[in-house]
């Protein structure tokens, strides 16, 4: 019964959400996170204020959603191409993350900043953005463990923190991670 | 002549600055970074608004100055006790940093967040806070290199990014770095 009533309600238009998200991403890229307000997103996308607040609690939530699909495009789980060594897979993953950061580092740094001021947002940022990328690296390293490509004595959670930390740290200090950093990370992780 | 004129001006009272900084630190610890305004610091410390703005451009600059001395107390360069191995020195340094973070992580995360929104502040945060601590770790690792405690093939800047990143990363995701993390970091850096 409850389900029927829900089904009878006005359906959410997925195109509207796509429009809002792409407008948000465009404005953020043009003007930066701080300069863009919900009001300017409303005015640019031509939707009603309530349409936005029905879906997203805060600007940070909306931006997270908008950036999320981009992140998936750049830094999704690698194909399990077993011809590729784990070292190559990790390198490929890092290069894709860094390409994404080259385009959207200002937005991502602003989201990390928002997460410091809002614990609820920190939780959703961690669950939707951080943890899935942590898992990708962890899976590559576990496979490397099982294939003997890294020593079983190595502690995987520490290596995962090294790998992500090694680009979060320069990024948040205003330094863009580059190809050389990706090479140095994999060399250090996979050295014998 | 210019110097004489300057010397004749009203001297800055160092006690006033100490009072403002300790009030700032106390308010930040009690209420958190976002909740404390320059107005509340003025009201609590009983100084004139202009006294504060003569010294500090923004709240972030004042907080950086206030936290700076604390940081020096916890995480300064290690004594060059040559009886201590580099591994022990690094462990000791990390434990002190983590103790400081246990007390002031909210303030430090808020400063890192401010650095994302204000490039000038990011520069001074990096110069005063980040770089000196990077240098401490770098010096320990260079000594380890020269003493053969780590292989000369290892790339020191990458290891420095691993070490700092390994606690920035959990910290900014709401996870307090602990003793176990310090042990895992040194074990990984100094493994043969």
Automatic annotation (TrEMBL), chains A, B:
Keywords: DNA-binding, Transcription, Transcription regulation. InterPro entries: Homeodomain-like_sf (IPR009057), HTH-type_TetR-like_transc_reg (IPR050109), HTH_TetR (IPR001647), Tet_transcr_reg_TetR-rel_C_sf (IPR036271), TetR_C (IPR011075). It holds the Pfam family TetR_N. The keyword Protein biosynthesis does not apply. It comes from the Bacteria. One of its GO terms (molecular function) is transcription cis-regulatory region binding. Residues 14-74 form the HTH tetR-type domain. Residues 37-56 bind DNA. SUPFAM superfamilies: Homeodomain-like (SSF46689), Tetracyclin repressor-like, C-terminal domain (SSF48498). The keyword Thylakoid does not apply. This is TetR family transcriptional regulator. The lineage of its organism: Bacteria, Pseudomonadati, Pseudomonadota, Alphaproteobacteria, Sneathiellales.
């Amino acid at each position: 019964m409850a389900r029927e009533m829900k089904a009878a309600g006005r359906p959410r238009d997925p195109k509207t959400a796509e429009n809002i998200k792409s407008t948000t991403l465009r404005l953020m890229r043009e003007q930066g996170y701080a300069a863009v307000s919900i009001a300017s997103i409303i005015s640019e996308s031509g939707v009603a204020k309530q349409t936005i607040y029905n879906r997203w609690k805060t600007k940070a939530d909306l931006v997270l959603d908008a950036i999320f699909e981009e992140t998936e495009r750049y830094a999704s789980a690698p194909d399990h191409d077993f011809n590729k060594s784990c070292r190559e897979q990790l390198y490929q993953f890092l290069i894709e993350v860094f390409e994404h950061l080259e385009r959207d580092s200002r937005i991502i740094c602003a989201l990390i900043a928002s997460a410091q001021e809002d614990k609820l947002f920190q939780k959703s940022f961690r669950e939707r953005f951080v943890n899935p990328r942590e898992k990708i690296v962890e899976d590559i390293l576990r496979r490397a463990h099982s294939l003997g490509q890294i020593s079983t004595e190595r502690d995987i959670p520490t290596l995962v923190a090294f790998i992500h930390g090694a680009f979060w740290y320069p990024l948040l200090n205003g330094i863009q991670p580059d190809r050389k950093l990706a090479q140095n990370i994999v060399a250090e992780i996979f050295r014998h």
